[in-house]
């Protein structure tokens, strides 16, 4: 089968390898879609990244059950699923424990049902502590920000202030129902949030970029005894924080990422239910599609972010 592995910066190769056989309690999934994650982009773009062995990667996977391992009984061959995996989803097939698969309705498009990022965003919204009536400031409205914006509304936020600097992200925020959109390329985002909240700051500020500037703005934009949610995936070096401001404001700071597979799966199940009930939308967040043979072009596109870019998906 064909599978992609990263060898070094800017070097992803599509190889011919043996098709995996599902072990007892596993299902073999024929991959139909795998989203490109910014955490993978960090490896691809980092000139200091090194690996002695090729890394088979890709974890935002949906597809069709192709084979059952001994004792696997939750699914049948032909069932549509999205999965949690760390075993290399940029491949024609991937095997995972059957407990790591979530069933999809017959009409759910595979590219919409990228379970891992959906679950990550729903878990982030759950950990945000948003209460009915809260004013929420969201800094960063890319693919993940677009998901968590919807999660914030479902949690009961009465007012959402969305901040970004890219025209496509600002348009996305409007389309998803943000009450106010702030163009960070034209004005100071934290100052504008303070103006919009009568000088108090937002009840909950969600930083969803993984960048130092957004972390600084989030600190400034949060109200006294507010909540600062670090949802962006911070990579590429250390960050600095204004601990004095955090102390003085008495902020509750939450790093809203999960690493426990069971927590991930809970978020995936929640997100898929919302998606299939038309309470969560994914289609407007997907902008660029690639075949597996063009995976390096997918990474180049994600790194350069051309006009209109939000999310790259590899389809099979």
TrEMBL record:
Needed co-factor(s): Zn(2+)
All copies of domain Enoyl reductase (ER), residue ranges: 8-314
UniProt keyword list: Metal-binding, Oxidoreductase, Zinc
SUPFAM superfamilies for this protein: GroES-like (SSF50129), NAD(P)-binding Rossmann-fold domains (SSF51735)
Pfam family, one: ADH_N
Similarity section: Belongs to the zinc-containing alcohol dehydrogenase family.
Name of the protein in its database record: Zinc-binding dehydrogenase
Organism the protein comes from: Paenibacillus artemisiicola
